[in-house]
Design brief:
- The chain has 175 residues and is mainly beta.
- The protein has two domains: 2-127, no CATH class; 139-175, no CATH class.
- It has helices at residues 117-127, 163-174; strands spanning 2-4, 15-17, 27-34, 44-57, 60-74, 81-96, 107-109, 113-115.
- The chain has a six-stranded mixed sheet. The protein has a two-stranded antiparallel ribbon with strand order 2-8.
- The N and C termini lie far apart (80 Å).
- Bound molecules: zinc ion (2 copies).
- The site of one zinc ion has 6 residues, from loops.
- One zinc ion is lined by residues 75, 77-78, 80, 133-134, 138.
């Protein structure tokens, strides 16, 4: 059974009824929704996409699949804004709340339905780098004049690789 996720926008919930997960054939869920609905703490662009396969063993739910989103990031070297694709392989489980503590990497649910959204957001957030760089080859900004060196040289002395040293050098020249 394949279902398009029905998104309850107001509640920001992507609910899966556990009894829709067939013991034999499982349940497939495909999600493609504007990502900015779901992430408060990070700036995202485009869609939150996920392809998930659910299997069920009594009340234990196992989830396999992939999720992706595009992070609106700022380069830590040149301060340019750019979009960074973030992808994660999902391999997790949901257990009824009574069974908490069996496995730290798993999630819990109450009642007959699970909300997969907090899990997806958490898994994606864990993949997001703390420091983003637009490219390994990024030259950054000139520490003296602040020009973006990816757009060409600035004519500052090449000695002034680090602005702090440039200041020191000037002080020494004065002495
Ligand atoms: Zn950069
Ligand atoms: Zn410069």
């Amino acid at each position: 059974m394949v279902a398009e996720a029905v998104l309850e926008k107001k509640a920001n919930v992507v609910a899966v009824d556990i009894y829709d997960i067939d013991i034999d054939s499982g349940y497939e869920l495909s999600l493609n929704s504007p990502a900015n609905l779901f992430f408060d703490t990070v700036n995202v662009a485009g869609s939150l996409k996920a392809e998930l396969s659910f299997t069920r063993n009594d009340e234990d739910i196992y989830v396999l699949g992939k999720a992706s989103v595009r992070l609106k990031a700022e380069c830590g070297r040149c301060l340019n804004q750019f979009e960074l694709p973030v992808e994660v392989d999902i391999q997790t489980a949901f257990f009824p709340e009574e069974k908490v503590g069996e496995d730290e990497d798993s999630y819990t649910y109450k009642g007959d339905s699970i909300d997969v959204l907090p899990m997806l957001c958490e898994q994606l957030l864990l993949q997001m780098p703390l420091r983003t760089v637009c490219g390994e080859e990024c030259k950054g900004l000139c520490p003296s004049c602040g020009k973006n060196l990816n757009k060409g040289g600035c004519g500052c002395s090449t000695d002034a690789v680090d602005g702090r040293f440039a200041v020191l050098k000037k002080l020494k020249e004065k002495q």
